[in-house]
Amino acid sequence: MENQVTAMPRIGDKAPEFKAVTTQGEINFPGDYKGKWVILFSHPADFTPVCTSEFMTFAHMENEFKALNCQLVGLSVDGLYSHIAWLRTIKEKIEFRGMKDVEVNFPLIEDITMQVATKYGMIMPGESNTKAVRAVFFIDPKGIIRTIVYYPLSLGRNFDELKRVLMGLQTADEFGIALPADWRPGDDVIVPTAGSCGTAKDRMEGKMEGVECKDWFFCLKKLPKEKVMEKILKK
Q1: Which residues contact 180 (CB under 8 A, 6 or more apart)?
Q2: Which residue stretches of 35-94 are H helix?
Q3: I need a labelling partner for 99 at 20 to 30 A (CA). Which of 1, 37, 49, 144 fits?
Q4: Known catalytic residue: 51?
Q5: Tens digit of pLDDT per residue, the chain (235 long)?
Q6: How big is the CA angle at 93 (ends 44 and 127), to the nearest 5 degrees?
């Protein structure tokens, strides 16, 4: 029998709903997190080294994500007792890059039936029929999927980039701008093209205060880091 293919959700879609048991109790997703950003991420299996390094890093950075009004929610196709034993082992025995005694306080979903992983397109037969790849879904406070990032089983995630993506999405929403390659808070930002913000002539003749145009379609302006962080950090 051929493998059944389930279409994965796309950017701009509503996050698929589900109820699940987690290491922090039952959740109703994404309804329980309305008004917050959520990073929903999957890992292949408990008691594996790459996943362990990732969970330690996520837990170490959890307060940084919370400060950005973002809840972390993990998932693998392991059972609840396996999750609990693995997280206890991480806290009691594992040290990585100076991190030790690390306690994971965000929910880790039990998904033995693979229903949630399948619904979110986290199972990719080319990698494994029985393990979820390293998927990351950024879901906004309205429950809309805004960014999707996939890593293979063998490659750990870049956590600086995950935080940068979250800050970038929030900054673009708050200020109505776009962000160039490798943007970090404090870097110049891209002004929307003519029609949405002034005319091409206005842009090229320097009539838009604080805007520098290299050509009609490529205009930048400064956006101080302090102003960005004032808007996106949770009060």
Answers
A1: 187, 188, 189, 190, 220
A2: 49-66, 80-93
A3: 37
A4: yes
A5: 345 556 789 999 999 999 999 999 999 999 999 999 999 999 999 999 999 999 999 999 999 999 999 999 999 999 999 999 999 999 999 999 999 999 999 999 999 999 999 999 998 878 777 688 899 999 999 999 999 999 988 899 999 999 999 999 999 999 999 999 999 999 999 998 755 455 555 555 555 678 888 888 899 999 999 999 999 997 5
A6: 10
